[in-house]
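Are you able to produce any protein sequence you like plus the matching backbone structure tokens because I've never seen that pairing?
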Amino acid sequence: MRALAVGGAGLVAILLLPLLLIATLLGVFSTIDPDGEVDPSAIPTAAAGQLPLIKDLTAAVCPELPPLWVVAQIQAESGWDATAFRPDRNGGSAGLYQLNEANWVDAGGAAWASAPPPTEADVLQPGEHLRAAIPWVCRNLRTATQHLATAGKPTTPLDAMLVCHIAGCSRVTDSATGVPTAGEAGCDAACADLVDDYLTHVHEFLAAYGRHSGPVPIDDLPAPTQFAGGGSGCTAPDPTGGNCLTPTTRHGFDEIVRAFGPAATGGPIRSVGCWDEHAWNPDSDHPRGRACDYFPGAAGTFPQGDELAAGWRLASWLRAHAATLDVSYVIWQGRFWSPSTSDTDGWGRAYTGGGVYDPTDATGGHFDHIHVSYAS
């Protein structure tokens, strides 16, 4: 931790150290599904060994703190090195969460006999560290949650918890949104950049360590009819209001409506968009009339429950009938699949954004919609 936030209250001291990462924050932070499950096969070995304890602790003392966020934040702080120590003019920070001595004592730990702490110090023991630090971090989360609700600020409580940890909770309470920009809440440009980089870094680990849901049963859905052909130009009407679709894409659209029902009559897909100029992405299939985006829930949000299941049903159906529909590829839930793509760690492979989109964002990572492109 690079800032002293006692009991999740105010900022006592801050040390702005550079993080060893290169990351760009794209717009307002968007949260990964807060109920997301940890993928044990994707996390560091040290984290996997402590995952049962993390789950027990969060369930007992802080149910609103998902284990996935614990794993991701500690990775950003210490790389899951329980003996990590970062020296600074205030005595340094130590252990998994990189707490400074004052915060560690406030969390119930013992004061350090030296800097760095001796190897037997409780702050450097992973189990003892987690038992003290998770309730302490939870205090920051609850302080931030109460303030955000009272002030009506748009930042999510979990992101505000991260701001508390890296820069002190006064940066949350004294900023307009809960995430300080340069010149507010006593935060200069270096401070604002540190906060932005930190939140971006944690979100990258959230995306990397979250469990990806997989295909769901589609046996109850009708199979599509084979497309009979009819040209490959953008000549068919786009029912979603765009300029045009290729005959293949229009056939795919009609078959999806036949199998799932239209959104207007209560179908599981809330909205659809096909043709679009997509000026920011010259390689997009949308302006060619060869792609559609299907939203099972609200755009910009991470679907959960029935909405998430509906999205997986469509993605699974498109994959199962890719040859019949002439599907080129599908992107959904941060995963990319094509008929020539081998499954890696689940369904398809991880979606990178291609240098155009933020793969951790709800829309950029295609968490809020299923993108389907057609070969012609």
Q: What stands out?
A: Confidence is low (pLDDT under 50) at residues 1-35. Residues 247-374 form one domain. The radius of gyration is 24 Å.
